[in-house]
């Protein structure tokens, strides 16, 4: 998350043409101010979240094409996808600015600090979103544009406006938006979908709770203060960890379903199984520690970071498998 600081003006003596001295103040429209402003708008898009979404897009496109689908198509899809995800995140920052203000994790976001006004953020999010849809429609295809619009609506309306403040299962159903890059990438190549795309979609869908709930455990006080009923806020750690195990098992099954559906090789099957069992072991370890605190700290952030490693390596395996000759 990007934060920008405002440097206080320090008086410096400077002689003018008449020999007098006066205080010099920084130019509010200079390069530093511009960089700070651009950085604040970039922070609204939550670039780290966007990066993770795009990690799933390229391997999906490669699987759909049976190879590399072409540099222009990949770049066009990534640019459009980044703009769409950035738009959804900026809308999220606008709608949730009251929550962000009371949470330690988010209190330095630009709308809270006043670096960007709510109106400017809303305009920025709207222009970015409309631009991404037009981009996909003109430069990729209508199918990908429709899936992009669906993703933005699910995240902004479904998750942020409806689910987030009302149900502990918010991230489960709101997480559908995070699965949409698979459909966007697949449809960008083929103009439609397939059962292989559905399997990849389900991998991310079932991955989302065991990815996000550990983070919610770490910041549960923040969420409780903000009145957001994340499952770790309203349920015992044992219940959360048990549900994480169930979602992880479903995730592994979905990843292996890709073998018959997409004709993946035994190499992918071995890698997917190994990665899945490794992540399942991490979740099981957290469950055991939740049942018996004497075993040590819960280790939620270890599971959180492990989930990112899992998803990244699994989709790398998808991309590599396309080129295996057997």
From TrEMBL:
<keyword id="KW-0812">Transmembrane</keyword>
<dbReference type="GO" id="GO:0008495">
    <property type="term" value="F:protoheme IX farnesyltransferase activity"/>
</dbReference>
<comment type="function">
    <text>Converts heme B (protoheme IX) to heme O by substitution of the vinyl group on carbon 2 of heme B porphyrin ring with a hydroxyethyl farnesyl side group.</text>
</comment>
<dbReference type="InterPro" id="IPR044878">
    <property type="entry name" value="UbiA_sf"/>
</dbReference>
<keyword id="KW-1003">Cell membrane</keyword>
<feature type="compositionally biased region" description="Polar residues">
    <location>
        <begin position="1"/>
        <end position="15"/>
    </location>
</feature>
<feature type="transmembrane region" description="Helical">
    <location>
        <begin position="72"/>
        <end position="95"/>
    </location>
</feature>
<feature type="transmembrane region" description="Helical">
    <location>
        <begin position="49"/>
        <end position="66"/>
    </location>
</feature>
<feature type="transmembrane region" description="Helical">
    <location>
        <begin position="116"/>
        <end position="138"/>
    </location>
</feature>
<keyword id="KW-0808">Transferase</keyword>
<dbReference type="InterPro" id="IPR030470">
    <property type="entry name" value="UbiA_prenylTrfase_CS"/>
</dbReference>
<comment type="similarity">
    <text>Belongs to the UbiA prenyltransferase family. Protoheme IX farnesyltransferase subfamily.</text>
</comment>
<dbReference type="InterPro" id="IPR006369">
    <property type="entry name" value="Protohaem_IX_farnesylTrfase"/>
</dbReference>
<keyword id="KW-0350">Heme biosynthesis</keyword>
<dbReference type="Pfam" id="PF01040">
    <property type="entry name" value="UbiA"/>
</dbReference>
<dbReference type="InterPro" id="IPR000537">
    <property type="entry name" value="UbiA_prenyltransferase"/>
</dbReference>
<dbReference type="GO" id="GO:0005886">
    <property type="term" value="C:plasma membrane"/>
</dbReference>
<feature type="transmembrane region" description="Helical">
    <location>
        <begin position="170"/>
        <end position="189"/>
    </location>
</feature>
<feature type="transmembrane region" description="Helical">
    <location>
        <begin position="308"/>
        <end position="324"/>
    </location>
</feature>
<keyword id="KW-0472">Membrane</keyword>
<feature type="transmembrane region" description="Helical">
    <location>
        <begin position="268"/>
        <end position="287"/>
    </location>
</feature>
<dbReference type="GO" id="GO:0048034">
    <property type="term" value="P:heme O biosynthetic process"/>
</dbReference>
<feature type="transmembrane region" description="Helical">
    <location>
        <begin position="195"/>
        <end position="213"/>
    </location>
</feature>
<feature type="transmembrane region" description="Helical">
    <location>
        <begin position="244"/>
        <end position="262"/>
    </location>
</feature>
<keyword id="KW-1133">Transmembrane helix</keyword>
<protein>
    <recommendedName>
        <fullName>Protoheme IX farnesyltransferase</fullName>
        <ecNumber>2.5.1.141</ecNumber>
    </recommendedName>
</protein>
<comment type="pathway">
    <text>Porphyrin-containing compound metabolism; heme O biosynthesis; heme O from protoheme: step 1/1.</text>
</comment>
<feature type="region of interest" description="Disordered">
    <location>
        <begin position="1"/>
        <end position="32"/>
    </location>
</feature>
<feature type="transmembrane region" description="Helical">
    <location>
        <begin position="144"/>
        <end position="163"/>
    </location>
</feature>
